[in-house]
């Protein structure tokens, strides 16, 4: 099992610690340079009036077909997510505590919530670390539920809050 721990996944280039375990026994840790195009994607999406339309056009869907995009992203996540992968866990196995991130989209759940991608949001909640991602605040100190609410996705915002309440966690509802 390999666990990646990184403070920020939207950097163009960063060093990440790779922790290797075999049968629950740590085998070591090494720093690896990680190249990401997420920052570039973030900047491209910001330059468009309608980022979802841009994503649909890029993937060959009819413009603005959020449902098709949502289904495609869920399918892609299911196909490409390594088993037992949890970006939010530390090498000790303990999840990061809820915190504020210096990024607008510190997790994919924040992105999905902001753009009202309901199916993708639910799939991410089922992933290890999904519950913790609900509590992480972005650079504007917003949780995914608050981002969804602010973008007019009230149904998704209420569902995310309900999910946290059903898990015995409470998120403070703040005025936006």
From TrEMBL:
All copies of domain DBB, residue ranges: 1-88
PANTHER family: BANK1/PIK3AP1 FAMILY MEMBER, STUMPS, ISOFORM E
Species of origin: Timema podura
InterPro entries (alphabetical): B-cell_PI3K-Signaling_Adptrs (IPR052446), DBB_domain (IPR017893)
Protein's recorded name: DBB domain-containing protein
Ranges annotated as spanning the membrane: none
Top-level taxon of the source organism: Eukaryota
